[in-house]
Amino acid sequence: MIESPQRVLITGAAGFIGSHLTDRLLERGLEVIGIDDLSSGSRANLASALRKPRFRFVEGDLLDPGAIRQVLGKCASVFHLAADPEVRVGVENPDSHYRQNLQATYNLLEAIRKRNTPTRLVFTSTCPCNSLQVHQSMEPAHSVTKTYTGAFSGNS
Ligand SMILES: NC(=O)c1ccc[n+]([C@@H]2O[C@H](COP(=O)([O-])OP(=O)(O)OC[C@H]3O[C@@H](n4cnc5c(N)ncnc54)[C@H](O)[C@@H]3O)[C@@H](O)[C@H]2O)c1
């Protein structure tokens, strides 16, 4: 019996890490579905992957639950890399960061929960969380009171 290749979903597939991961997993013989809204990523990052029959790219936004359902399909694993990792945006426009990082992640988790199928989720979190700094006040000096290393990585 010929086994069908394992199918994985990569969110943020057209971004820096997502596009490299896409290439690596295709090299390993996996079937990859990539979703990206191209807000900062680019199809050019997927030039090699787009030539491979085991790769399917969907231009879609994780803020749209329908787009997530469309790509989740029978994927056994999800690598969640879609994000706006630009720290300055979070400071200057927290509303945008809330939607792109929190709401988008929530939508993905909800879609996985609702389909009720065992799914492996790999989430990198974000570099600012690796050394989360808690400010005692919002004074211009931003006095740092505590640093939580690996606060969201399960290492603390
Ligand atoms: N690059 C690093 O060194 C590094 C280090 C640690 C953690 N990380 C984390 O890894 C993740 C990916 O980082 P990256 O450097 O590849 O970022 P990136 O900006 O290159 O890629 C993110 C991708 O997500 C897409 N995207 C954003 N919002 C979306 C949405 N609502 N729906 C669909 N696609 C959306 C963007 O278009 C982009 O292609 C981020 O969470 C980042 O914080 C990155």
Describe this structure as you would to a colleague.
This protein has 156 residues and is of the alpha/beta class. Helices cover 33% and strands 22% of the residues. It is built from five helices and seven strands. It has helices at 16-27, 65-72, 87-92, 94-115, 127-130, and strands at 7-11, 31-36, 55-59, 77-80, 120-123, 131-135, 144-149. The protein has a five-stranded parallel beta sheet with strand order 3-2-1-4-5, sandwiched between helices. Helix 1 links the parallel strand 1 and strand 2 (31-36). Helix 2 packs across helix 4. The longest helix has 22 residues, at 94-115. Residues 138-156 have low confidence and may be disordered. Bound molecules: nicotinamide-adenine-dinucleotide (NAD). Nicotinamide-adenine-dinucleotide is lined by residues 12, 14-18, 35-41, 61-63, 81-85, 100, 104, 124, 126-127.
